[in-house]
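Hi X.,

You mentioned you wanted examples for the new student's onboarding notes, showing what a folding record looks like when two proteins sit in one file. Here is a clean example. The first protein comes first, with its sequence line followed by its structure tokens.
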Amino acid sequence: MSSPAIDLAASLFDRLAAETATPPGVTRASFGAGEQFAHALVADAVRDLGLIVTDDIAGNRYMTWPGRDRALPRVFIGSHLDSVPHGGNFDGAAGVIMGLAAIRALKDGGFEPQRDIVVMAIRAEELVWFPTPYAGSRMAFGLVPAEEYEGLVRSDTGRTLADHMRELGFDPDALREGARPLDPATIEIYIEPHIEQGPLLVGLGKPVGIVTGIRGNLRYPNCIVRGTYGHAGATPRAYRHDAVFAATDFASAVEDAWDDHERNGRDFVATLGQFSTDARHHGMTKISGEVRFTMDLRSLDNDLLLETDRRLRERAREISKARRVEIDLDIYRNAPSAIMDQNLISLLEEEAKASGIDAVTMPSGAGHDCATFAWQGIRTAMLFIRNENGSHNPDEAMAMDDFAEALKLLVRALRRVG
């Protein structure tokens, strides 16, 4: 499928891939050279469309198509332009580029918006660089705690968030003092197109997903099982305090909880992402006295997450007693879920059906900037584009035909809400 809008998108993807390549993938570090190039590229691409390009003091970029009544709350389309190290070319960038392509298609079709339509290129979404979620969008609403600007350091440089921002001409000091670049009252709708980061659309054979919500999470970064080291042959079972067997019992308890939630039709996923004994002390002929692991629980239902935490802590106490060890789950960090606007979901479903777009409704297991907007009470929607091989890796493989289907749906929706 070829059109001026699709040609614009394809050329931007090609330029991004070429200029931010770090084989085998691309790297666009938050507040780094790759992200900076991406922001410059999209701004240059829209000047002939007559869009107004501005930045806020956090570095987010706004490309605005003025509407007939500029006092009306605006429609935002947005996503991020940073990437993980050696990641894929489409994660995040597809949303910004689709917003620009949508404006090109609407202009070519003679549409004149009643209200401003703004494409927002968001900074620093990938927390691999700075360990805080949705940094760019949260800074836009004044939600990043003051201490994080000097307290967070970038993973590759060891320099602070504030230092990197100042280097590019932005103003972390004003943000620390309470500046709030975006007022939720001035935004009617936020729509975020994004590649799907999992396999569901590929498995279903569907090009487009209409997202129902962003799963919230409980994250446990410092779980530990403390037992006692001992000789593998000389210590009878009754005298063992085996951290490995206790840890695997607990892992089974997590899966048991997941099984129960699935049987009851409740949305839930769980991951033990890190799981290891201490390499300084473990050995083939030693009973391990320590296991460390991380845990990530996600659901659209935050009450279910808290209920699961209580259940797992009780099981940890039972396993600790039975195995004669200590299981310490430590504290968790809770990011609540973000539910997409039901009226916008219905609108997208109607337009998909009317235009013959084969779309399916689905939750998002990964976090996205649209959660920040939903938390502000802004009506929010999200579109997924089918993507082979998952995301955060160089093998992302979004087909332009699928991009075109999602673009067609976005354009039809903007005609109704813009």
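Then the second protein repeats the pattern, sequence line and then tokens:
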Amino acid sequence: MALSTGKFVLERVISVVVVVVGVTGLTWLAVNALRPDLRAGDDRFILIGLLDYLQSAFLHFDFGVSRTGSNREVEDVIRQGLPADISLLAGGLAVGLLTGITGGAYCAARPGSFPARALETAAALFMCAPVYVVALLSLLLFGAGLGMVVSSGPAIPTTYTSFRDSPLGWAGSLLVPWIVLGLPLAGVCLRMMRASMTEVLEEDYLRTARAKGLRMRTVVRRHAVPAAVAPVFSLTGVTMPIVVTNLVLIEQVFSVPGVFTGMRRGIAAGDFDLLFGLTAVAAGLVAVSSLVTDLVLAWLDPRVRARA
């Protein structure tokens, strides 16, 4: 069993490395093939240049120099901005999963009730509403110094506080971005959890548990939710590219100093070294998040490891 688990983890880690290096390499190759002027003075075969770039980037962490701003090393941009992005992504995933699983379990256990209908409507709304619209409305209504509703008292911070400066201020500055990032995921997870748990509740062993006198709340919490939650994590892994795309948008709206803050200027200025580095970071966030969901899914459902 331990050998099977180790093999499963090793295969997933290797796939993460392959995905990140592959996506970055294909991006570099496509740009340099379409823009030969970027390789002016370099007479080497393009694949040799690609191998040299991948070696410098992933073995020496040298992504070149960004031409926007103060000509900083791209690795410095990544090192300074990555902690904020990881914090934002982790919090958004936690909010989305917990809210979606809890809401989906309630909707399956109380089908047709008014709260269940309200939750399903809210899920559909947040699945369709663009995150930057929700983020902007949040700031315009409740933002500090901007809000039309909040004139005094607690408001949404409009500046980011690092964890090192103040852990409480850090959590306060990321609370609303976590919620906004997690809402679309919560809507997707709620619908999947409701469908999965509706099937699980019809299983014979759960009918027997209810017939023996167990309260519905106990049956749902101890038996139905653990049995129905695996598809939710599987779906979360599939939606990670969308979650990371939303992260980039939310980072811009709430002024979170993450890696992607200068992406717009980099695109406008043709700062390809910076864009290649951002491509690697985005691919890494998607791949690592998918890896985590795969590991959780394998822990919840050992059959996943057996089929791997």
